[in-house]
Amino acid sequence: MPRVCFTLQVDPARLDEYRARHERVWPEMLTALAECGWHDYSLFLREDGLLVGFLVTDDFAAAQAAMQARDVNARWQAEMASFFLDLDQDTPDRAMRPLDEVFNLAAQLAAQTGETP
Question: Can you name the residues that pair with 45 across neighbouring β-strands?
């Protein structure tokens, strides 16, 4: 299953509040993410506000589209948008740009042995 990693920039002045909002994400939002194919989804936050997201999904574009069709996502994005810098009139979920994976240990080890990762 493909892995996706993306970055966004959280306002460094609001890191504590951003962390607090993610301690108890709305149950309806958690359910929607799972139902829309966001597996093993994690967010990592650096002290300068760099946010790194990671998830596993069959089709990232489809997983994003499925979430964008959910009312809870629209409400969550509206609540969270003010935490981010440089969104250019976009919502955080639409500003996600996947990074190119340039190394995967499991894939290279599997290639050596002829196995699948």
Answer: 51
pLDDT at 117: 66
Cα 77 to Cα 2, 47, 70, 80, 117: the distances in Å are 24, 22, 11, 5, 34
Domain 3-113 sits in CATH at 3.30.70.100
Segments of the chain scoring below 70 in pLDDT: 117
Catalytic annotation, residues:
22
pLDDT score at 88:
77
Alpha-carbon distance of 56 to 38, in angstroms, equals 6
CA distances in angstroms from 48 to 11, 44, 53, 91, listed in the order given: 8, 12, 15, 21
Paired tokens of 44: 């990592």
